Amino acid sequence: MNLLFEEETKKERRRQVIKEILWFIVMAVLVIILAWLIVHFALKRVSMIGSSMETTLYNGQDTVVNRSSYLILKPKRGSVIAFYPEANDDEDATVQKDSTIQIRRIVGLPGERVQIRDGKLYINDEELSEKYDFGEITSPGQANQEILLDEDEYFVLSDKRSDIDDSRSSSFTKVTRKNIIGKVLFSMNPFAMISGPQGTSEQETQEGNESETNSESD
Asked: What residue spans of the chain are helical by DSSP H?
């Protein structure tokens, strides 16, 4: 009886081990499939073209774009986005080639009025206070006159504000909702989250330390 009981116990243990191994294999396969779907459908590798986003991004620098960012939510002010340009000869056409993808930062949202006066950016007649120091706006371009954005249109600027290769230029492509690929999450070389121009974090830290020192002195 004991031998039979031990034999049945061993068989049950073997069956349990086999089940656990099979379960692990199934889960591993599912994780691999999920990762493949995320990489191929939710994320997209995009290279920065030109120097307009310096010092946040540099020419030729590879980035990763989240294509699912705006499936439900709307693009927000301050976000760095990747988008396809519109064809010059047809406003309804989009040039969907990876080599043409542009990367810029959103400053104006649909339905807003945008204008640049005396080197300062105004949204609906109120000066926009931005989180990062992008440098001086030396040329307002077509934004010297107030621009009313359509209900699906976004106004974008270069992080290198002296570079007018953005919505200030009449030759720059219109940025509409349907052309936006997604939000730029991070750069790949080197690996870093996308926020503001390089040196901003160090500057904020220094300012914070100075503020703490002043408080202690008081």
From this structure: 2-37, 200-217
pLDDT at 151: 96
Whole-prediction pTM value?
0.75
Number of C-beta neighbours around residue 164 at 10 A? 21
Q: Tell me if 152 sits within 8 A of 58, measured CB to CB.
A: no
Residue among 15, 21, 68 at smallest CA distance from 43:
68
Taking every pair of Cα atoms in the chain, the longest distance, rounded to a whole number of angstroms, is 97
More confident residue, 190 or 3: 190
Distance CA 177, CA 70 (A): 9
Structure tokens at 103: 């990367």
Q: Alpha helix (H) ranges present in 38-167? A: none
- 208 pLDDT above the threshold of 60: no
